[in-house]
Write a structure and sequence with these properties.
0% strand; 1 helix
Length: 50
């Protein structure tokens, strides 16, 4: 994405935490999230950090 959109900010791994994401949204008109996760069958719509 960074090559396609000049002026992009790329946040990887530990840099992509809530404070950095929220701050970045104030400075950019476009946000692209590429995420991986695991589905918990008992609560499929809830995010589980543990």
């Amino acid at each position: 994405m960074a090559r396609l959109v000049p002026g992009s900010t790329v946040l990887l791994d530990g840099a992509a935490e809530d404070p950095a994401l929220k701050e970045g949204l104030h400075h950019h008109a476009l946000a692209h999230f590429a995420c991986h996760g695991a589905l918990k069958q008992s609560t499929p719509l809830l995010y589980d950090r543990g």
